[in-house]
TrEMBL record:
Record lineage: Eukaryota, Fungi, Dikarya, Ascomycota, Pezizomycotina
Species per Swiss-Prot/TrEMBL record: Ampelomyces quisqualis (Powdery mildew agent)
Segments for region (Disordered): 215-255, 284-370
Compositionally biased residues, Polar residues: 230-255
Residue ranges, compositional bias (Low complexity): 284-294
Biased segments, Basic and acidic residues type: 326-360
Name of the protein described by the UniProt record: Uncharacterized protein
Length: 370
């Protein structure tokens, strides 16, 4: 934030009350002010301080983030005194907290909702943008204490335009919060689109494998048969449940599948279910089991009544593709809206700066020699 002329320091008050901030933003950014002050993420807790001037005192504190590490286990609490903001470390489940060392002032990582005002605060060292973001966050912390009647007023020790900074924080909060919510919704939409696509692909693969052959993917092991013919033994525990039930029912019936060139004959011997694949089979072997059951048609069997046509599967895949295209358009709209709001905020800031400079020039001319 640019340094204001020295002559404007006389325009800033020494003390600010809660009503001052509420009146200032009433006709400027009322929606941002309402969103900021009425957020459900503000959490005031009473903690007991173990060290320092306020040792053994139980005071209200605001949960603002984490110290030392962005995803650390400890919690960071802020206590506004009216002159400054003090930081304390502790755990949410414990009563006692201890002061954050002064040399760890650049290890303050704000969480939601303060991160929408201060930024990520992850730059190396205490840069200018990081200092400005931290100052805005501390101003909002003090205003929250004012709103909850934990402070009487805020002392303007550094002679800053606190009202203008509060207005900027309200606009910044609303913009960044909307962007974060848009990203969260887009991520959820992408997640559910992927889930639907995966389910569609798995159903199509399963139904297609049942249609082409119910033994696809089942491991077969060579086994010697009593009459010397080549045979394979299927491990029933490695077979899908649907294929296992279908196979067992037809094995017990002694069903024979065949045509002019090949035949598949099933037999049941105790607990070992075996089948032979002979191409071609002798006429006697091909007629085995014909008296017990007629040759069924794969299309007419009830095991394939749940099959979905490729046209239906393609329709579902098209709907998933349409959802992804809608998601990309949603991303582009969010970026355009962000640019529009940023340009509007910059225009308002330039207008306010020009107005302040004009007022400064008028005051200098009036205070000059007659």
């Amino acid at each position: 934030m640019a340094t204001l002329p020295v002559s404007l320091h006389m325009l800033y008050r020494k003390q600010y009350f809660y009503d001052d901030f509420a009146r200032h933003v009433k006709n400027r950014c009322e929606s941002g002010y309402e969103a900021l002050m009425n957020s459900e993420q503000w959490l005031l807790q009473h903690k007991t301080i173990t060290q320092g001037l306020r040792s053994s005192k139980r005071v209200p504190m605001l949960l603002v983030g984490t110290p030392y590490y962005r995803n650390g286990a400890q919690a960071l609490y802020a206590f506004a005194t009216g002159l400054t903001v003090e930081y304390y470390c502790g755990y949410e489940s414990q009563e006692y907290v201890w002061p954050l060392p002064e040399h760890a002032g650049n290890k303050v990582y704000f969480g939601e909702p303060l991160v929408f005002i201060s930024g990520e605060q992850d730059a190396q060292g205490m840069t200018k943008s990081r200092r400005n973001g931290k100052a805005l966050a501390e101003l909002i912390i003090s205003v929250i204490f004012l709103q909850n009647n934990e402070l009487g007023y805020i002392e303007n020790c550094q002679v800053r335009d606190l009202l203008q900074e509060f207005e900027y924080a309200c606009v910044n909060f609303e913009t960044n919060r909307d962007i974060a919510n848009d990203k969260k919704r887009a991520k959820e939409a992408e997640y559910w689109a992927n889930e639907e696509s995966q389910e569609t692909a798995k159903e199509y693969r399963q139904q297609n494998s049942e249609h082409e052959g119910m033994y696809s993917g089942v491991k077969m092991e060579p086994d010697s048969d009593d009459d010397g013919r080549s045979s394979f033994q299927s491990r029933a525990n490695r077979m899908p449940s649907s294929a296992r039930s279908y196979t067992t029912s037809h094995i017990r019936a002694g069903t024979s599948y065949g045509n002019n060139n090949s035949a598949y004959t099933f037999s049941s011997r105790g607990n070992n279910h075996r089948f032979w694949a002979l191409n071609p089979l002798p006429s006697a072997a091909r007629s085995h089991g014909a008296s017990s059951a007629a040759t069924p048609s794969r299309r007419s069997d009830t095991s394939y009544s749940r099959l979905t046509s490729p046209r239906d599967v393609e329709g579902r895949l098209k709907r998933v593709s349409q959802a992804r295209r809608t998601l990309k358009e949603f991303h582009r709209g969010s970026v355009a809206e962000l640019e529009r709001r940023t340009q509007a905020a910059e225009a308002e800031e330039r207008s306010a700066r020009a107005k302040a400079e004009r007022e400064a020039g008028i005051s200098q001319r009036r205070s000059g020699p007659c």
